[in-house]
Amino acid sequence: MRAPRLGMDEGYNLTLGSPQATLRAASVWGAVRGLETFSRLLQMNGQHSIRGGDGMVIVDTPRFPWRGLMLDPARHFIDVSVINSTIDAMAQNKLNALHLHLTDGESFSVNTEKWPTFPNLSVKGAYSPALSYSKADLEAV
Q1: I want to staple 122 with a disulfide (CB 3.0 to 4.6 A). Which of 27, 64, 73, 112 is the partner?
Q2: How far apart are the C-alpha atoms of 38 and 33, rounded to whole Å?
Q3: Can you tell me the distance from the alpha carbon of 97 to that of 69, in angstroms, rounded to the nearest whole number?
């Protein structure tokens, strides 16, 4: 699946009927946004009913093309598992941009031990060598 891009149509039309629902979207990301809305409407009360019920129509499109969040692990180290949990929460709330502020005058939190030009930048520039992100950490994000 291709990543969303600026100008992509993320709108969708969700029609709830009984016993089925119909989702229409011009792009895969519109469908993803519609499925997220649909998942919020399900009530797991033993009957698997849908809040709002039969005949509800939802027509939705994002108001802004970029909807995001900035995390600042340069100043306040954040564990990779917490960053990934934040990304999951962003997806549930239809946010599509994450800005990681990894370096600053106070800290250089990207591990540079394998960089031939600046091998000690993260060792001396991070708050602690343990408080820097390895290549594997960044790939996991």
Answers
A1: 112
A2: 9
A3: 7
Per-residue burial over 6-45, b if 16 or more Cβ lie within 10 Å, else e, is: eebebbbbbebeeeebebebebebbbbbbeeebeebeeee
CA distance linking residue 100 with residue 11, whole number of Å: 27
15-46, pLDDT tens digit by residue?
988 778 899 999 999 999 999 998 888 766 66
42-43 and 49-50 as β-strands: parallel, antiparallel, unpaired? Answer: antiparallel
Contact yes or no for 43/50 (Cβ under 8 A): yes
**What's this model's pTM, rounded to 2 decimal places?**
0.76
> For 131, how many CA atoms within 13 A lie in the half-sphere containing its CB?
16
Other C-beta atoms closer than 10 Å to the C-beta of 78 total 16
